[in-house]
UniProtKB/TrEMBL annotation:
A Gene Ontology molecular function term of the record: DNA binding
Organism: Actinocatenispora sera
Pfam families found in the cross-reference section: DUF5753, HTH_31
Record domain HTH cro/C1-type: where: 17-71
Name of the protein in question: Transcriptional regulator
Amino acid sequence: MPAGQRPLVRRRLRLELRQERERAGKSQSDVAKRMDWSLSKIIRLEAGQVGISTNDLRALLDMYQVNESERRTFLIELARAARQSGAWWAAYRDVAASSDYLDFLGYENDASDLYYYSPLIVPGLLQTEEYAREILTALSLNANEELTERAVQLRMSRKRHVLDRDNPPSLTAVIDESALRHVVGGDEVMNDQLTSVAEVAALDNVTVRVIPFSHGAHPGLSGAFEILDFADPMDTPVLQFDAAPRDVTLRENGEALDFYRRCYRQLLESSLPEAESIELINNIAEGMLGGES
């Protein structure tokens, strides 16, 4: 599977094809025998691990008795889109620890609403270049300066493609106060970082909320997570956990998603209102340069 393909489109295609097979009352073994495929091919197709040619798709739709012209056209165009490669994140395969991380970048790129929680560091989409460099250098144990610099480029490219594009997604970021007070790269780097967060939070599509130290225990203490929603209700949300530097664990399980949505609602309830959150961020930033915070 080429790294530059869009995972959202690929996932939608596999779900649509599985639904059509089930409507037709066919098993995967039935399809493999009728199409003269190996069983593993239809399994991999419905898992989104391989694409499908237009000719094979037409034959498959004939077998499933999908005769409506509009429906057939939709699925054929979806298959063509799923095979297209060359997305911006493909250029960073060398610094992605797994295909899951590349898929996460693709899902994030296509999402309409992003809900991020970060207890220890400023979320990646809000990081300045110097802050990101310090974080990524530390997380890589200073192993490879060239690779770390590529990872910084990836983070900045991700930020541009998601937040700086036309019609950007809605971003809600809940950040623990500890992430704001943990000095990364020195006072000036941290001041610049916090000032940048406050500036980005002024955008119409961005909301930043801070959970203060004074709140005490809350459900986010178990770690960072992100929920990605999509404009089309047929595209189910994605839940993501940080697994390692430049790696993630993706979940589409409905039960887990419901649990973390409840967690996120509680985190919002635990956080300061938006205006008070920005005031706290600015106060901490000023304190980095010798003022009071």
